[in-house]
Amino acid sequence: MKIIINGQPLESDKIHGENLEEILSDIQKKHITGSIVGEVLVNGKSYQEDVPHAALEFSHEDIQTLELTTRSVEEIAWHFIENGEHIVNALTNALPKIVEMFRLGDETEANEHYLHFLEALQLLLNMLNYTRQTLDIDFNHEYDGQNSIEAKMERLSEVMSELIRIQEENDWIYLADILEYDLTKELIDFKTILPRLKTKLH
């Protein structure tokens, strides 16, 4: 495997990992200081993770070249500001399939997709908090005349807690209803708020 970080080669025998996720984690811990992996090129093609842990499926043997570009914590936060709307779109678009599987009684596959979805949703909340702290943004500001990002984050957390409670009760039809109506509404609200945040910061 040929590894390049910010244009500089790195000896592959210094890297450990059975798959892309483990390799990236190893590089981040041992070979990158004061910054975070930003752009990732695998075999010359841009790689972005659509769902959490998708990189586990990319085995070491499948990687001929791995090129990384690092960013500062501030750059990562600004990248989220610029692209956060696309992340919310991906989450919103994933919901109908999960809802359909729960309503059809395909609980095993539905739960697998649902757990990946929840991880991605939690990552969104984590990135919002990370961006707020890094760029020192006031999330209590009202961006649409009535809702602040802080209030919407709290509401989203409440819906997630409700989903966990319903899941524990194995009430899959009710879970599908909450996903389709309550959670979808909250995500759509974020799709309108995030662009306004970007405009305000610029």
Summarize the topology:
Elements lengths: L1 E4 L2 E3 L9 H12 L4 E7 L2 E2 L18 E7 L1 H31 L3 H29 L13 H20 L3 H30 L1
Parallel strand pairs: 1-5
Antiparallel strand pairs: 1-2, 3-4, 3-5
In DSSP terms, counting alpha (H) and pi (I) runs of 4 or more, how many helices? 5
Nearest-integer average pLDDT: 87
Low-confidence stretches: none
Order of the strands making up the biggest sheet? 2-1-5-3-4
Number of domains: 2
Q: What proportion of the residues form beta strands (DSSP E)?
A: 5-15%
Q: What is the distance, rounded to the nearest whole angstrom, between the alpha carbons of the first and last residues?
A: 41 Å
Q: How many beta-strand segments?
A: 5
Attribute tags:
202 residues; alpha+beta; Ubiquitin-like (UB roll); 2 domains; five-stranded mixed sheet; 5 strands; flat
Can you tell me about this structure?
This protein is an alpha+beta fold and 202 residues long. The protein is built from 5 helices and 5 strands. Strand 1 and strand 2 form a beta hairpin. Helix 2 runs antiparallel to helix 5 and helix 4 runs antiparallel to helix 5. The chain is flat. The N and C termini lie far apart (41 Å). The model has no long low-confidence stretch (mean pLDDT 87).
